[in-house]
Amino acid sequence: MRPTVHIPLERLCIIVALIIGAGGCGNGDLFVSPAGLRAFESDDLVTEEHEDNGTFESASHIELIPGQRKSIAGRLSSNADIDIYATGQSFAGDRIEVEVVGKPPLDSAAAVFDSRGMLLYTNDDRHFFARQINPRIDFILPRDVDELFIAVSVSPTSRSKGDYALTMQITPDKQEAEKHPQTIVLNFDGAFGIAFGGRPPVNIPIFDPTDISEKLDGTDDELIDRITQLVRQDFTGLDVEILTTRENVDFPIDASYIHFGTHDPALLGVAENVDEFNQAPVQDAIVFTETFAVFNVLEPGIEEYARALANVTSHEAGHLMGLVHTTDPGGLMDITASLRQLTHNQAFKQSPIERSTFPIGTQDAAQTLVDGVGGDLDVVRENAAAQIELHQKVFSAPEHAPIARVPFSTCYCRFHDAKHAEYASQDSRIQSATH
């Protein structure tokens, strides 16, 4: 266990918000902007949004002068409405800034996509617990794109609608987007006081396979070795080092830990954050191993148990390195697969984004990971293709027993779970425990 003090994430973020000036930086006639781009004023809204721009093909084309901001007055007419803007070609090293300020009661979300409709960055709330529900995006573009798309939608957790001001700026700083290689420690030796994302602190016991099934008695070393092998295989080609607490090695200070143990009534795993471009190397995730007793109905062997545990581990590690949820049973970031599908190969692949993250677009998991941590994209894709082929061979025929899977869930930096809970009375799309 690493020697660290766990500060609850919501407390930490509120401290940061106070430091950077969460109270805003000016008033306009219609909108107030938090710290970031200069406050919006009605005179700044030089362009009005055109309707029927809800797809990448029908996106409104916006001319942006490099280094100058442009603001758009738009309206989301329903909670299903999406507005997409095409800004033209952008280059590696450009600084992309996007901010959306909704006129109450609108609660909006924003995302940036490349020319293929692949997600680059998304944000729902600047800080939910500080009641900054206006999204803000600020990042360095990791590679050239022929077309950059900026999308605005109603927050997936909200049923609101209304007017918004979108301000965007692309600054050709020509900075090199920094890669952040990652060390992940698989902790099978227990931990105390692991807390993040508004969840209460949890003590995690030493990993015991019999908490999953009595038939796994005596398989500790074999199961841990196989989980480790499979997770390392998932990250082949990436600048990611996978270590375990059962190895006699010194762990770096700047490592993230995935803890194995304890139970959650509805979850297989949870991660501290969706860390776009892997900016924070020290984070936590939990794989709730006792919850894996739900797999016992399938009568799996040790290989199937190991694969399910490894899939969830790689899924949570993916969040810690910037990946969001998708809907593709063959993908590691999926949240729709059955229990049986989880006991077989999944991979970091191109998959549709799950609607509770953003209502349009695709995630290229391999490319996103290489953008964040570095690695050889060709090797990553080849490895994923091999895993996908194995998955397709197994599931080319209908499953004999369509048993639903316990869903994944993640406490985002947007405090996604907490926001879902607060909007429960308004939002019928909160994910249930089964599909």
How would you characterize this protein structure?
- The protein is an alpha/beta fold.
- The chain folds into two domains: 9-171, Jelly Rolls, CATH 2.60.120.380; 182-422, no CATH class.
- 19% of the residues lie in helices and 21% in strands.
- The protein contains seven helices and 19 strands.
- It has helices at 9-20, 220-234, 302-320, 339-342, 365-373, 377-394, 416-422; strands spanning 47-48, 60-61, 70-76, 82-86, 95-102, 108-113, 119-123, 136-140, 149-154, 162-171, 182-187, 191-194, 202-204, 240-244, 256-260, 269-271, 284-287, 350-352, 362-364.
- Strands 1-3-10-5-8 form a five-stranded mixed beta sheet, with no helix packed on it.
- Strand 12 (191-194) and strand 13 (202-204) form a beta hairpin.
- Helix 2 (220-234) packs across helix 3.
- The two termini are 36 Å apart.
- The model is unreliable at 1-43 and 408-435 (pLDDT under 50).
